[in-house]
User: What shape does this take?
Amino acid sequence: MYRRLVVAKELLAEDGVFFVSIDDAEYAPLKLLLDRIFGEKNFLANLVWQTDGNFDNQARFKICHEYVLVYAVNETQVPSPPVIDPNAEESGKLFRDEIRNTIVKNGPKNPVSELTLPAGFPADFEEGIIPERQDKWPHFLGTAEIKNKKLISPVIIKSGWANKKLCERFIAGNFQPVFDTKNQLTTFILTQNGALENIKLRKTDQSHVVSVIKNVGSVQSAGAELLALQINFTYPKPVGLLEYLLSMIHGNDFLVVDFFAGSGTTAHAVMKLNQEDGGNRHFILVSSTEAVEEKISPNPPFAKGGTINESSFSKGGTEEEADDANNPSLGKRGIGNQETRDNVDEFAAFLPPLQKGGRGGFPDKNLCRDVCAERVRRVLQGYVNKKGEAVEGLGGDFAYFRAMRIPKGRVYEEIQDAQIWLALQLIHLETFQPFAADKPVQTAEFDHGLIAYCTKVNADTLMELEKLAADHAEVIVYAWQAALLRQHLPAANFIVEAIPAFLMNRFGDSHAT
Ligand SMILES: C[S@@+](CC[C@H](N)C(=O)[O-])C[C@H]1O[C@@H](n2cnc3c(N)ncnc32)[C@H](O)[C@@H]1O
Assistant: This one.
């Protein structure tokens, strides 16, 4: 987990935030691990999610919470969350521009003392009298008379006080607002029933997130929500929780990565938020097939290996299912056309055969493909629920990719053109074109022109490239034989690049992790 978290931090933006949900059992070691990776100073919060679930069957202590640890890459870059706790009542303090509180506070730490309110002290009512009294706090040692919202002659009042010193500064400063210890502007006011209150102006960057999160749904309600989508998954997170966490991030145009995606709740929440505020948030989800080592039948090469990672990637572009050749909705644009699927099948040849219990011993089990991607597809495109009603999609697109392991030492021999082409597009674009084996050159449009991948340099590819150069302002051509290609492509609008070493290193490194 340590290395995975280090990579996660590397992937985050400078102002990025990391959320991790964890229960009591694993909280303590995870907190220490995260302190080490992110630094204690970048710890933002330990949110407690009140899980609301059914806990009748638990012995001794009934646990109804989990945690969400929140870290920043750099806490100075993360402003207060621009969201208000969903449980805050609209009439409550959080929604007012000013916060009022009585400063009358009696107790051992606040012994009773006198405070003299001079003439001119402000009141929140036009005119009236607060009679002398000893039966209610604060005591009034004389009658207070108010005209034009001001005390017309001094009065001594007596009580224990929460904020007496600040009030005295307010009086000394001729009733001008004063800053409290938290730098909040504060004024004081007398009310008609004789209370003395302070008024603090709400700071615009003030946080409205309360550390205990309630009423955002439960695992049970989330499960039921998924069943309505005709998807079955144990322990999904409620969409409401993810929506709330994501709305703690400023702006509505950012990328969210969930590398333990499970049923894809994160994608669901991202698209829901986009629909609500017209945002342009993107997601990358990664999940395993859930074929875990202990359950694997002894069938190499996965007997010692573990899981296959797969991912869904939304960058506002294509939507495809790379695994399922029979899916009739495929192949319009993007990575899921026939060639790509053939390619996937070619990759699949490296895997142990399904029927022999390869891929983790669960021939039919592929959580990523059948649960996560399927849920995302239904949520985005619409679906027919259990009751037979049509539910409209939230809109948006996604692409589905499958990762495979290539032994580090064999990357250059085993890497496929389709994989290279995909990775090259990722450098420049937010949408993807499938690898088309019948084309001499792979191409994809981008803002200023065209990205091309030239698998070999020969007469056909040169002719094709020259045609492309004539039609586009700029053509970036990636090739293995970049130097050779440069000699043959004199046109000024060509930029010839070798396949980047970092890209190949990445492919190689992926085996090591
Ligand atoms: C607790 S679930 C996440 C649930 C998710 N938040 C939801 O609402 O559905 C964790 C998921 O991570 C997946 N997982 C486990 N090991 C993984 C790995 N090495 N790489 C990627 N995903 C993994 C599991 O298959 C499981 O579905």
The chain has four domains: 1-78, 98-201, 217-402, 410-512. Confidence is low (pLDDT under 50) at residues 292-308, 315-361. The pocket of S-adenosylmethionine is lined by residues 233, 235-237, 259-260, 262-263, 265, 286-288, 290, 307, 309, 367 (CB under 6 Å).
